[in-house]
Design goal:
63 residues; three-stranded antiparallel β-sheet; 49% strand
């Protein structure tokens, strides 16, 4: 089974939002909004670094 991670980055200036979904090969949503972070670029980098290990666990649990 292949699982796709879709990241959506939106924003302007120094405020951004990053959201992520997991979908299967047909595009069916497996888990929506597995994370959603709002803030400036430094904050988003810090949050994504902290969240990475949880993301790997979530994907591994779905396999």
């Amino acid at each position: 089974m292949e699982i796709d991670l879709t990241l959506d980055l939106t924003g302007m200036g120094d405020k951004y939002r990053v959201t992520a979904d997991l979908t299967d090969q047909e595009g069916k949503l497996i888990s929506g909004d597995i994370f959603k972070f709002d803030g400036n670029s430094e904050y988003l980098c810090m949050e994504l670094d902290a969240f990475f290990s949880d993301l790997v666990k979530l994907v591994s649990d779905r396999l």
